[in-house]
TrEMBL record:
Its cofactor is pyridoxal 5'-phosphate. It comes from Craurococcus roseus. InterPro entries: Cys_Synth/Cystath_Beta-Synth (IPR050214), P-phosphate_BS (IPR001216), TrpB-like_PALP (IPR001926), TrpB-like_PALP_sf (IPR036052). The keyword Amino-acid biosynthesis does not apply. Residues 20-320 form the Tryptophan synthase beta chain-like PALP domain. It holds the Pfam family PALP. CDD domains: CBS_like. Keywords: Pyridoxal phosphate. This is Cysteine synthase A.
Length: 347
């Protein structure tokens, strides 16, 4: 539907949860666009049925497991994953719709809202202490061990392995990238996105580069992550820290992202205050509630737009909504304790 349409296009009836994933709108970010002279568009992934961009990866991973025979619709099966929260939510909801169980391993430091939501939707939630990736107690390693033990006991189980499972990036190459291309009618000059697993950036980048080799692909990274350094120097080197959840890798390049290095043109590093400025500004002035990773994405899109100059179209991802981070991003005590800005309406 175009902006000047008088009558909305009728949306067809879709089949369950899976049918509702994707086809999210591109939202023109008015203040960012006016400040840069570019069209800055945010893909509203918080409008997926599970509330985040991770619904796409979750659906892609489970459908791939079914094609491989690791899961069989209508028969008992379990999906196991280690996650910062959103992928676990998506996997649990897809599993519910398919008749499977889910075991989700999450660091206990993640937002209370995501943990409560996982419990609410029926995930078997296993909380672990935050550990470095090399530690056996890291949430990813813990989830893999649980899946291996269940499989050894004869249970039908799949370890989702969102970081290394290439079905993650393929889901975005098949859906998110084409949607951006179609909605902009090919008039996309740059795409910027932060990375947790790297699936979104890798999949979208591959598709857009295939259509338009000159499109600029820029990785947006929080402080405390080494992916900015990896793009710039080839070495994963992390500096600083960030309150953002689910994005940034301090010590290793995710398996979904590694093969995409050749289609990534640049990287920008966004500190928390700059990201929070966009989170609060979009909520107060444009009525859009987004999480911290989306704030980093928008801040990065503004930087890229200013580098490229007026007249360009820059697309980014609005990964999820702000309600999942109320106890952190919108908690004055939490923000003040970290010398971060507090929005005026909460101060």
């Amino acid at each position: 539907m175009t902006a000047d349409s008088q009558h909305p296009t009728l949306v067809p009836v879709v089949d369950g949860f899976a049918g509702a994933v994707g086809q999210t709108p591109l939202i023109r970010l008015r203040r960012a666009s006016e400040a840069t002279g570019c069209e800055i568009l945010g893909k509203a992934e918080f409008m997926n049925p599970g509330g985040s961009v991770k619904d796409r990866a979750a659906l892609g991973i489970i459908e791939d497991a079914e094609r491989r025979g690791q899961l069989v619709p209508g028969e008992p099966g379990t999906v196991v994953e280690g996650t910062a929260g959103n992928t676990g939510i998506g996997l649990t909801l897809v599993a519910n719709a398919r008749g499977y169980k889910s075991i989700i391993v999450v660091p206990e430091t993640q937002s209370r809202e995501k943990l409560d939501f996982l419990r609410m939707i029926g995930a078997d939630l296993r909380l672990v202490q935050p550990k470095p990736l090399r530690d056996p107690g890291h949430y990813v390693n813990t989830s893999r061990r649980i899946a291996e033990e269940m499989a050894a006991g004869g249970e039908r189980v799949v370890w989702a392995n969102q970081f290394g499972n290439l079905a993650n990036g393929e889901a975005h190459e098949k859906t998110t990238g084409p949607e951006i291309w179609d909605r902009t009618e090919g008039r996309v000059d740059a795409f910027t996105c932060s990375c947790g697993t790297g699936g979104t950036l890798a999949g979208v980048a591959r598709f857009l580069k295939g259509k338009k080799p000159g499109v600029r692909i820029v990785l947006a990274d929080p402080m405390g992550s080494g992916l900015y350094s990896w793009v710039k120097t080839g070495e994963v080197k992390a500096e600083g820290n960030s309150i953002t959840e689910g994005i940034g890798q301090a010590t290793a390049v995710p398996g979904n992202l590694e093969p995409a290095r050749g289609v990534i043109d640049d990287a920008v590093q966004v500190p928390d205050p700059e990201a929070l400025e966009q989170v609060f500004d979009l909520l107060q002035h444009e009525g859009l509630s987004i999480g911290g990773s989306a704030g980093i994405n928008v801040a990065a899109a503004i930087r890229v737009a200013r580098q490229m100059g007026p007249g360009h179209t820059v697309v980014t991802i609005l990964c999820d909504g702000g309600a999942r981070y109320q106890s952190k991003l919108f908690n004055p005590e939490f923000l003040r304790a970290r010398d971060l800005p507090v929005p005026s309406w909460l101060a």
